[in-house]
Amino acid sequence: MIERTFSWARYATLPREIHVVLFGTLLTRSAFFMIWPFLAIFLYQDYHLGATLIGTLLAVAMVGGALSSIYTGWLSDRFGRRRLILAGALLSALSFLLFIEAGSVFWFGVAVAGVSIGCSLLESTCKVLIGDYVEDLQSRELALYANYFLVNVGGSIGPLIGMLLLSSVRSLVFAVCALVYTVFGLLLWRLLRDKEARVQRHASAPTPNFLVAFGAVLKHRRFTLLMLCNTVAAFVYASFDSTLPQYLARSEVQDPVTLLVILITLNSLIVVFTQFPLLRLLEVYSTRCRLFWGMALMLASQLVFAGSPVTLFWGLALATLLLSVGELIVFPIFSIEVDRLAQESLRGTYFGVSSLYRVGIALSPIYGGGMLDLVGGQWMFIGLAALCGLVMVVQNYAVR
C-alpha cells in the first residue's frame, strides 16, 4: 500500500488517461505562453494601440474566458467531458490560426478572446477529468498538484521558446500552437471514447438544467467562500506580473527591465524546483493548515515589498521568495478543495464556476495602477497584505 501522497510510486498508479492529460497540459500551456506574454507587444507594434486600450482588451478577454467557463462547465456535465475538450482544443487552435490572418484590431481581438475562452474551457475540463478517473483521494491530490506544477513549467519555458521563434517567423509560432492544441484534443477524444460512457453511467444523479445547477453551486456556502478566497489570492499574486513592473519602472532603479527579468526568473525557478520537495515536508499537515501558512507567506511578501527600498535587491529577492513559496502551497489547494466539495453530477459546473478566480487576475492591474497614481507603491503593497489577511480569516470557514 502506498502511504505517501507525493511519491513516484503513487504517480505511476494514475490511469493512462490522466498521464496523457498531464503531459498534454505541459505541451498546451507551453504553447499558450509562447504567445500570450507577447500579445501586448504585437498590439502596440502592429496597430499602435495605447497601453490603456491594450490592457483593457486583454483584461476583457480574460474575464470573458472566466465567465464562459461557468456555462461550458455545465455543458461538460450535461454532454460529457470528451466533447468539451475537443471543442476547447479546436477553438484554441482556430484562434491561433486567426492571428496569422488578422488584418485589423477587431479580428486580432476576436482571436485573443477565442484563445482565452478555448484555453479556459480546456483547463477546467481537464481538472474535472482527474476527479472522474482517479478515485483515491490522495492520488487525486497528487494529480492536481502535478497539473499545477506542469502549468508552471509551461509558463517558464513557453516564453523562452516563443522569444526565440518569434524573432524569425511569427506565423510559424502560431501554426505550432494550433497544431499542439489540435493533436491534444483529438488524442483525448479518441482515448476517452469508451471510458467516458462508463463514467457517466456511474454518475450519482442526472444533470439539472443550467440555472438550477448554477443556483445549486452558488448556494453551497463553503464553495462560494472558497471561490472568494481564490479570487482574492489570485488578485494579490497577479500584482507580481502586472503592477510590480510599473512600480519598478517609476522608481530610481537604473535598469528596471533587467531587475524584473531576474525576479521573474527567480519566481519560476522556486516554483518549479521546490514544489514537490516542500509538499513532501508539508503533507502531514491538513490542507487548512497549509493554506493558512501559504497565505501568511504571501502576506509577509507584500510587507517586505512595501518596506524594502527598490534599490535593495536582496529585499526584493526575499519578497519574491516568500511570494513564490506561498503561491506553490496555496493555489493547488483551491483545486483540491473544489474537487472535494463538488457534487459528482455537477463536478464540471463547480470547476467552471471556480474559474471566476481569473476575474481577480484581470482586475489586479486596475487596482495596481490606481494605487500607484494615488498613494504610491508602499500603500499598494500594504493593501494587498490586508487582503491576504482577509483570506486567512475566511478560509477557516471554507476549507475542511
From TrEMBL:
The chain crosses the membrane at residues 20-44, 50-72, 84-100, 106-130, 142-166, 172-192, 223-240, 260-279, 291-307, 313-336, 348-367, 379-399. Keywords: Cell membrane, Membrane, Transmembrane, Transmembrane helix, Transport. Residues 17-400 form the Major facilitator superfamily (MFS) profile domain. Its main location: membrane. It is a multi-pass membrane protein. It is found in: Cell membrane. This is MFS transporter. It comes from Pseudomonas idahonensis.
